[in-house]
Design brief:
Layout (H helix, E strand, L loop, with lengths): L14 H8 L3 H14 L4 E7 L3 E7 L4 E7 L4 E7 L1 H9 L4 H9 L2 E2 L2 E8 L3 H15 L1
Helix pairs in contact: 2-5, 3-4
């Protein structure tokens, strides 16, 4: 399991810190965050601290988190929790087989299936946007 790189509870990361830590993936971080906010009028970004992961972002609306984003060294993870309808739709969609396998193998909890996707390559951003669209529908 990866732990976040921003672990000082008294010091949430500023944009320059995030840009330095993420390197080339900083652009993709912004594209994913902005995609949610542009496509869902009630969405906003919220930094959150946990002992397990340090500082991470939740892009959420008033009722739920749409995507969790955890900064790591040179990349980040985008995490989702999908109910069964959303998971079924994602598995039938045109996203990559690797992500479909992640969703299929995710343990099922009362709140849904949780899964994390490493964002190290810009090609994955298209699939993450598709997952955001599915999440917003359900």
């Amino acid at each position: 399991m990866d732990y976040g790189i921003f672990t000082d509870i008294s010091n949430p990361p500023a944009e320059p810190d995030l840009k330095k830590a993420l390197g080339k993936t900083f652009t993709w971080w912004n594209k994913i965050r902005d995609y949610v906010i542009e496509n869902h009028s009630e969405a906003s970004e919220e930094w959150n601290y946990s002992k397990s992961f340090g500082w991470s972002v939740r892009v959420r609306d008033k009722k739920r988190v749409i995507v969790y984003m955890l900064p790591l060294d040179g990349f980040f993870k985008a995490s989702f929790v999908f109910g069964e309808k959303a998971a079924g739709e994602a598995i039938l969609s045109n996203i990559s087989k690797d992500i479909k396998d992640l969703i299929s193998s995710a343990k099922v909890y009362a709140e849904g299936r949780g899964f994390r996707i490493e964002v190290k390559d810009r090609k994955i951003v298209k699939d993450i946007k598709k997952l955001i669209d599915i999440k917003l529908l359900h």
